[in-house]
């Protein structure tokens, strides 16, 4: 997992060939339609704007993804995340859904952190994360970056 201000995103461009496209999309795309999937590179890079009311810690389940890296960028409000190393999560609530690339867990996060506007978090397949913890409206964009076969060992 990586957490940093958006101004530092360029530091991480070499972690994945499509991260540069994410940086370009942040400058050129409109994220004002929540729930709309914006296909930037077919299914290899997708942006999904999200406008949601924050929820309490008990409502936020840990989740993990096998095929995609999540880059979650806070646009407005404050969003707290729970985090746990996937290897420590064993209490599966909803088994892996291949279509949605998601598994849900009932394990407790080992830590929490909060993103403010213009900050981001990158979650790799070994990161379980519980998003949307907070109060009020949280506006964000989630970039789904497909993991390439030679990049599985994050």
From TrEMBL:
InterPro entries in alphabetical order: NanQ/TabA/YiaL, NanQ/TabA/YiaL_sf
Organism lineage: Bacteria, Pseudomonadati, Bacteroidota, Bacteroidia, Bacteroidales
GO cellular component: cytosol
Name of the protein: DUF386 domain-containing protein
Span of the signal peptide: none
NCBIfam families in the cross-refs: YhcH/YjgK/YiaL family protein (TIGR00022)
One Pfam family matching this protein: DUF386
